[in-house]
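Exam prep: given the inputs below (a chain plus magnesium ion), describe the expected output before reading on.
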Amino acid sequence: MAEILAAGEAMERALALLEGGDVVAIPTETVYGLAGDATNGVGVARIFEVKGRPRFNPLIAHVADLAMAERIALFDPLSKRLAQTFWPGPLTLVLPQRPGNGIHPLVTAGLDTIALRMPKGFGGELIARLGRPLAAPSANSSGRISATTAEAVAADLGSKIRLVVDGGATSVGLESTIVKVEGGKLRLLRPGGIAAEEIEAAAGVKLSRGAAGIEAPGMLASHYAPGAAVRLNAETIAKGEALLAFGDRRAEGWQNAAALRNLSETGDLREAAANLFAHMQDLDRSGARTIAVEPIPFDGLGEAINDRLSRAAAPRDQAAPRDKID
Ligand code: AMP
Ligand code: MG
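Solution:
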């Protein structure tokens, strides 16, 4: 069972767990977050595993200050003004990533943009001490409502995590508002803890809504499609195909593969999740026309891995169903 420690006495324990690639439930002003080091693929994979998320949708990366944010992303003037006005606070900005920022691709689901926010209180202090950003979706099992007290987190996730940091009931109690600046225009991607009118007043421009369903990543199957065709559950490998392997037994004809990456030699699904985006990109860059994927089990993180791979294999113009609330 998770230990529940008051925020005043939890800092060192939380740091040790995060340094070790584990997750920690933390209070923020919006809802409790399930936090992992955003630069550590195994730590980020743990987040999806603990939540039981059936999909790798992109997570919000949390920063300690504007300087950390600017090392991660490229700010246009309007986004910067909004950050200066509302941070720390329940506003998330979607921004282009700065190349080489060290963010693990599982945080952004392989996108070239990133969602950033600076939280108040314990979370902000923890990130400053760690010196690295934290990926943190709401600390609840996928499909359940967000937790706003440490007790609610412990009741839901207590058997799966080591530490819940208790900061009392969250003050906002709603997820952050997510906005994105596009060509000088401001779009509302998700309503949340800061009212749209407040943001409009600070920005001096109207927010556009609508079509957010398509804008949010993970909504289009083809979003994740590599240039190569993708063939799932491959039992035999044809000459010239690239092979995305899993485990220690190779598909027949694996020697034919033009390029090979193994998601996890030992069949560890957490390791496989952490490697998924980088390996797919490597194989795509090999120039092979087809990436053959060995069968991957559906238990644990296997469900999300298979979901992402089947999107990569889907016909390129097909829209996928919307993500569930989680
Ligand atoms: P949460 O579970 O609260 O961390 O929610 C993350 C939200 O941020 C989801 O609605 C995502 O679709 C959205 N999000 C994260 N990253 C991006 C991005 N790069 N572009 C657009 N939306 C994003
Ligand atoms: Mg949530």
